[in-house]
Write a structure and sequence with these properties.
Layout: H1 2-43, H2 52-73, H3 89-124, H4 136-161
Length: 167
């Protein structure tokens, strides 16, 4: 029974990561269209879009933070194994466990501090550059991406610690 619950939770976390990746892909597509429209407006119509830099800056942060968890799910993250590739399987497993634990620790703190930062932005009412848009909702979305990544790190870490830990 416990094994079924663990698998359900893991599938839910992976499914949520996939969903966030789709959102990131849509945001990236919108960003590309926005930049293209800005280029056309700037160079052909002599009328650039106001706040273009800020919009792209915010969208880039959203795209990256929302797609990180999926990259870890499908093992498309950067892995430098020059040293560990020459080590025994046991050392490689230990290295992976330590890496996932470090990622879990770092992104747990990053998630928490991103939420703290978003709360402070909400209280101060900071706007995005020249745009009359509050910054805090976007920072909360970044926190959601970081939380998703933290949960993926947690599932990978637990999986490695389980008997017969998987790579």
């Amino acid at each position: 029974m416990a094994g079924r619950v663990v698998k359900l939770v893991e599938r839910s976390i992976i499914g949520f990561s996939v969903l966030l990746n789709y959102v990131a892909a849509v945001l990236f597509g919108l960003m590309v269209l926005f930049v293209a429209a800005d280029v056309v407006g700037r160079y052909f119509l002599n009328s650039p879009i106001k706040g273009d830099y800020e919009f792209v800056e915010v969208m880039t942060g959203l795209v990256i933070s929302l797609s990180l968890a999926y990259a870890l799910v499908v093992d498309q993250h950067v892995r430098v194994d020059i040293l560990t590739s020459r080590c025994s399987q046991r050392i490689q497993l230990l290295s992976d466990i330590l890496s996932y634990f470090a990622g879990l620790a770092v992104f747990t703190v990053a998630s928490w501090q991103t939420i703290v930062y978003a709360n402070s932005l909400r209280k101060t009412g900071l706007l995005i550059g020249v745009l009359p848009i509050p910054a805090y909702p976007f920072v909360y979305v970044v926190a959601v991406g970081f939380i998703s990544l933290t949960l993926v790190f947690l599932t990978k870490f637990i999986r490695f610690l389980a008997p017969g830990g998987q790579r």
